[in-house]
Design goal:
77% helix; mainly alpha; 62 residues
Length: 62
């Protein structure tokens, strides 16, 4: 009984981890429009190259 519970918990953890990774890849928490707004708010006019660079660095950490 205890072994089954532990195996279920481990399997559930890995399944949840995989599902979350897929969800975040499909629906990123920050998009290009948010980055443009953020940079404009800091007083910078973002070029598309800078926005792409920021998006790439964000994807690296996901």
């Amino acid at each position: 009984l205890l072994v089954g519970f532990i195996a279920g918990a481990v399997a559930g953890f890995f399944i949840a981890k995989t599902v979350m990774k897929k969800y975040l890849k499909k629906n990123p928490p920050i998009n290009e429009e948010m980055i443009k707004t953020l940079m404009t708010g800091m007083g910078r006019t973002p070029s598309q190259k800078q926005v792409n660079q920021m998006m790439k660095s964000m994807e690296k950490y996901m």
